[in-house]
Design goal:
The protein has 461 residues and is of the alpha/beta class. Helices cover 47% and strands 12% of the residues. It is built from 18 helices and 10 strands.
Length: 461
């Protein structure tokens, strides 16, 4: 039927389409009028055609993404209750974040997937500390789960400016934990979200994620091969508001990761854990955040994310609360079950526009990655401040575009509600916290685009 319909029409080349557009422009320049360039140097055309697209061989398999509930562990009993409640309400993965050691048995007691107890529950840990003894305990006491320890010592250096202890001790702990890891344990992670939330452009995010991971492959090659050959390294990505670009970002990364691991002759899967970005979230007209996170979660699904944890619309200024967490989780469940996104990771395959973006991002990110490696690698460039400077340059450019109204956040720098008051609603401090301290390197600091504007509005309330 499809062949019959398409056979009714003569094929039209890309050249013919462009000639028709040029005629309709009545003398206006095609490139100046209809082609625009992104911050990454990507030239976006008004139309895409099969003649202009080179398809990349991206090994995307039909899969269902996991809906993850993120829970902060203040005490094990409360976190356990919240996790059980989330699982009953549709989540099928849990992320536990903690700043200190907790009672593992109390935290995990009675946790299983309610729809089918035979399925193995995924548990992700986000530990803001490094303890060899505690990580060993986690491995020993979580044999009934698939666990992701998300050990990212370089990520901690990027975020805080310091190692947990020092370079040598941190790598020793990592190597020992890699040796102790069981088949159900994934140890390594790369927090690429740090770069996005600080203002890095998409090419930088992909290249820095690769270079960041490459430091682990170089430093722990034998151990990684031994423990992770059939497992994965988890890459934590933050997803921004540029819908098609973010889909292409994840696809470009997966393509380049396969190339990198082939060079090492390794079979290490890139497990993609995605969260909506905080960079474009706003304090005023906060309900618009729900629209932003919905499209960002869609980008993550179509880009091939394995696990998605949504961000609640009021997370900037409210402490965690049942209503907002339920809404955030239900956004993912509606996408998954009612919007037919359950196994949608392959839906973007073959889209001329997305394929073109993917190829351009991959080419530019690979070029940047090679430049980083040529100049000593990711750690060396962090220590020299090169990575931080490049991110700051990108963030400054983006901030200027927001300040000039070129980047629009509805309800904030366009069509703001002047009657909207927020000062009495603040339970959390929604701006960058500055705490002078001695650091080994300059840290990469996350900052939202709307912060300056919001501070000015708050001061006038």
């Amino acid at each position: 039927m499809n062949d019959f319909l398409f056979n009714e029409f003569e094929p039209i080349s890309s050249k013919q389409w462009k000639q028709k557009i040029q005629f309709d422009l009545k003398g206006a320049d095609y490139n100046e009028t209809l082609v625009w360039e992104s911050n990454e140097g990507i030239k976006v055309k008004p139309f895409y055609h099969l003649d202009d697209v080179d398809f990349l061989n991206i090994n995307s398999k039909k899969k269902q993404f996991s809906v993850c509930q993120s829970i902060f562990v203040s005490d094990g009993k409360t976190a356990n209750f919240l996790a059980k409640d989330a699982l009953k309400r549709g989540a099928n993965a849990i992320e536990f974040e903690a700043n200190e050691i907790f009672d593992v048995e109390q935290l995990l007691k009675g946790l299983y997937l309610t729809d089918d107890s035979k399925k193995i529950l995924q548990i992700h840990f986000k530990l803001n500390f490094l303890s060899a003894d505690f990580l060993t305990e986690l491995i020993e006491k979580t044999s009934d789960f698939t666990i992701f320890l998300n050990t990212d010592i370089i990520g901690n250096l990027v975020k805080t400016g310091n190692w947990f202890k020092n370079n040598k001790e941190d790598h020793t702990v990592l190597e020992n934990i890699l040796k102790k890891a069981t088949k159900n344990t994934n140890v390594l992670s790369v927090d690429a979200g740090l770069y996005q939330n600080a203002g890095a452009n998409i090419v930088q995010q992909v290249a820095y994620a690769l270079a960041h991971a490459n430091e682990y492959l170089n430093a722990n090659n034998d151990t990684v091969i031994q423990s992770e050959s059939e497992e994965s390294i988890q890459f934590n990505f933050s997803i921004g508001g540029n819908y098609f670009f973010e889909i292409a970002k994840l696809r470009a990364f997966q393509y380049l990761w396969e190339i990198l691991t082939e060079e090492y002759d390794l079979n290490i899967k890139a497990n993609l854990f995605a969260k909506p970005s905080l960079r474009n979230k706003t304090l005023y007209d906060y309900n618009v955040n729900m629209l932003r996170t919905t499209t960002e979660c869609m980008s993550a699904i179509l880009g091939g994310a394995d696990v998605i944890s949504n961000v609640s619309y009021d997370s900037l200024y409210h402490k965690k609360n049942e209503f907002a967490e339920r809404i955030a989780r239900n956004q993912l469940l509606i996408l998954q079950e009612e919007s037919y996104f359950k196994q949608a990771n392959q839906f973007a395959d073959g889209s001329y526009y997305i394929e073109s973006l993917t190829k351009q991002f991959a080419e530019k990110a690979l070029e940047l990655f090679k430049d980083i490696e040529k100049n000593g690698g990711f750690l060396k460039q962090l220590q020299a401040g090169t990575i931080q400077r490049k991110i700051e340059e990108s963030a400054t450019k983006e901030q200027q575009q927001f300040d000039n109204g070129e980047i629009v956040l509805l309800g904030t720098n366009k069509h703001p509600n002047i009657d909207d008051k927020m000062k009495s609603e603040l339970e959390l401090y929604p701006f960058v916290k500055t705490k002078p301290r001695k650091t080994t390197i300059k840290p990469v600091i996350a900052k939202r685009l709307a912060e300056k504007l919001e501070q000015e509005r708050l001061s006038k309330e």
